Amino acid sequence: MRLLCLLQLACLAGCGASQARDWAHHGAHMFADLTVPEMKAVRAYLHGIPEMSLTDARSKNLNKNSILLMELHLPRKHDALRALDRGKAKPPRQARVVIQFGNQPKPNITEYIVGPLPFPKSHKVKTFKGDKPVSFESRPISSVEYFHIINILQKITTKVHKLLFETTGGFSFTNCSNRCLTFTDIAPRGLGPGERRTWIMLQKSVEGFFIHPVGFEVLINHQDLDPEKWTVEKVWYNSMYFDSVEELVEKYESGTVEKVKLPDHDENDLYSTYIPRGDSSTPTDKHGPKLVEPQGPRYHVDRNFVQYAGWSFAYRVRSSAGLQVFDLRFNGERIAYEISLQEAIAFYAGDTPAAMQTKYIDAGWAMGSSSFELAPGIDCPEIATFVDLYHYFDTDKPVRHKNALCIFEMTTAMPLRRHFDSNFQGGYNFYGGLDNTVLVLRTTSTVYNYDYIWDFHFYLNGVVEVKVSATGYIHATFFTPNGLHYGSKVYNYVLGNLHTHLIHYKVDLDIAGQENSFESIDLKFVNFTNPWSPKNFIVQSKLQRTEHKTERSAAFRFGKKFPRYVQFVNPSQTNKWGHRRGYRIQFNSHGHSVLPRGWREENGISWSRYPLAVTRHKDSESTSSSIYTQHDPWDPVVSFEDYIRNNENIVNQDLVAWVTVGFLHVPHSEDIPNTATPGNAVGFFLRPFNFFNEDPSLASKSTVIVRPGPDGTPNIQRWTPSVVGHCVTNSSFFYDGTYTEV
After folding, report:
1. Which residues, including other chains, have CB under 8 Å from residue 262's CB and lie 6 or more apart?
2. Close Cβ partners of 188 (under 8 Å, ≥ 6 residues apart)
């Protein structure tokens, strides 16, 4: 009878896990990015509303009404869980649409929720918390606005043609052939709300132009929707400021300004290129190691739903912010409802006005839509599954980004666990090991000069690693002697400017259910009499647990002591050993605050005050930033600080962790031509902490156990083919385990 009961329980558990996977698969489409037909249907619907008077986004005038951005509008969590946990009908799909209304007396930005998809027939205004309006000046810059910026730069550079030509040794912005100038624009665009003033620096238009500044910077006021009314407010040249282009030209011609002469441009100088140079002993007729799948892939992908080992999840790449994972489960049990990239910033310092002003807030550049094609064998292994992404930002048609996301399983070339059990007589009792394979979900964002590589790693033991690796070109400005306080000289006339990268994630954990609590664990020393030697004392560490009951107590500031462990637990669920089931967050980061609290632009990135903050889940607090923060960080429409200001109770609640990781980058000569990924990767781990009864990777059949037989011959126990495959080796696994003196 007892055996029958156990079999019934096992069947129920297995059936439950199977049903959970079916419901997860059923609900994954709720989180899928908009399809091309959906995007086109939404555009057609909105363009068919006469009172909106929508025109093409790419038409050359600025005083128009047009669609700026279109992306999926997520369902409310409660509605989504009905489908995910009970197999109920999925809520209708909807689109979030950003429209810039420039063709009216008071231009504004309005967001709409449009649905149901794929055949929309209604729309409603989407508001921000507190019904805060979006200022028109805070909108992201468009290709049409760049078109007019180029036009005014042509006028400006025509006036200073002689100066630029003499300074650069023959480069010009107009009427050039192989010696042209280009530009980089700086953000935020002003010093306060309602402004749209941009510092622009000129660079040589060569491969890797980001690190070829020429020492000419200009401040353009382009707030007016009539480009003919745009003005030049300041000019910077040779560490001097001028109120107009004409003033600079007059003083240059009269000799009252010291002229700058860059070294002669050498067409053969490989400085900013990828072309190999230097000595290497690596053979050029041999490729390096490659990943193979001897018997084919061990994961399954169905549209945006992925299954691997015990894992299942849905994903999307949000056009405004980037990679997101939803309904993350292990063995059918949800670990997290959402893990999503929210924002990435890079705040700089320097001696030129462009460097001083550079505070990049990348959602304002729609960093999710900056996901471009991945190169097989470099960005992802050749064996990876490559996926096309589709975005609708600053366009009139959906844009296909071919092979912009990849999914693959890889070996880490490190055992997940292993043990050699010596008999201390030249032999062994047993050897056991399990190779560490991991599923990787990857995409990139190339936000102008920088390339971010976004990863989710799913391990066999229930661990998730969320990681970003930084590469690409540094943001460089013209070298001045005072610039050495703010970076390193990396070329004849180039300064690599110091900056701090911070990345923000939303981590909506559901540990064994939605009712979770948050606690931290530290150590304290205890001193007591030695019980087996009363004349002596024992000093050792003791666990000190703190349950954080309110949002403020769970908001940890940069610069303050951070707990050794932070974990989310379900108070009503315990494992076999009586411990509350939990997951902890382990940081891999050395980020820090980028500005003093409350200082101007810092108000727009108030999340950057905290490596970790914990709040109660609210659908109205779905994101920590917005596409408008870049151009109005002083008075943002989304203020993360508001999420914790009411200091709500977080005991036995649906909780969200907001995680900030990052690093300081002081550029150096080895950043030429590009910043390399080693040492420039940060992130965090989600690690089970008494969530399971034992290591769940014991379910893996890739374990190998070796025991010596009676005659000393190794007895190899394994559950996978003994021969890996001809692509790796035709030899069977062999292990001896003895050790002798020689």
Report:
1. 167, 168, 169, 214, 215, 492, 493
2. 357, 359, 361, 601, 630, 631, 632, 633
- Residues pairing with 182 in the sheet: 203
Burial 374-388 (b: 16+ CB within 10 A, else e): beeeebbbebbbbbe
496's tokens: 């690599």
- Three-state DSSP class for residue 595: coil
Active-site residue identified among 315, 360, 450, 459: 450
pLDDT band at 712 (very low <50, low <70, confident <90, very high): confident
Give DSSP secondary structure letters for 445-472.
Answer: EEETTEEEEEEEEEETTS-EEEEEEEEE
Three-state DSSP state, 552: helix
Instruction: Record the pTM.
Output: 0.95
Separation CA 596–CA 608 (nearest Å): 10
Among 80-89, 119-128, 419-428, 719-728, the range scoring the smallest mean pLDDT is 719-728
Phi, psi of 60 (to 5 degrees): -75, -10
Q: Could you confirm whether 279 is annotated as catalytic? A: no
642 a catalytic residue: no
How large a percentage of the chain has pLDDT more than 70?
Answer: 96
Residue range 292-339, pLDDT digits in tens? 998 899 999 999 999 999 999 999 999 999 999 999 999 999 999 999
Instruction: Kindly give the pairing relationship between strand 612-616 and strand 555-556.
Output: antiparallel
172-193 per-position pLDDT tens digit: 999 898 999 999 999 999 999 9
Asked whether residue 6 carries a pLDDT value surpassing 50, the answer given is no
* R_g over Cα of the chain: 29
Cα dihedral 122, 124, 126, 131, rounded to 10, equals -170
Residues linked to residue 687 through DSSP beta bridges, in sequence order:
584
Q: How far apart are the first and last CA of the chain?
A: 61
Average pLDDT of the chain to the nearest whole number: 95
Q: Residue 1's pLDDT is what?
A: 53
* Residue 324 near residue 340 (C-beta atoms within 8 A): yes
Question: Can you say how many angstroms the Cα of residue 536 is from the centroid of all Cα atoms in its chain?
Answer: 53
CB 431 within 8 A of CB 417: no
Please answer whether residues 473 and 449 qualify as being in contact, where contact means their C-beta atoms are separated by less than 8 angstroms: yes
* CB-neighbour burial class of residue 614 (10 A; exposed 0-12, middle 13-18, buried 19+): buried
Residue type, 353: P
- Identify how many contiguous H helices and E strands the chain contains and give both numbers: 8, 36
Helix (H, G, I), strand (E, B) or coil at 417: strand
d(CA 723, CA 112): 58
Q: pLDDT band for 740, please (50, 70, 90 cuts).
A: low
Band (pLDDT 50/70/90 cuts) for residue 725 is: confident
* Cα–Cα distance, 346 to 334 (Å, whole number): 34
Do the strands 555-556 and 729-732 form a parallel or antiparallel pair, or are they unpaired? unpaired
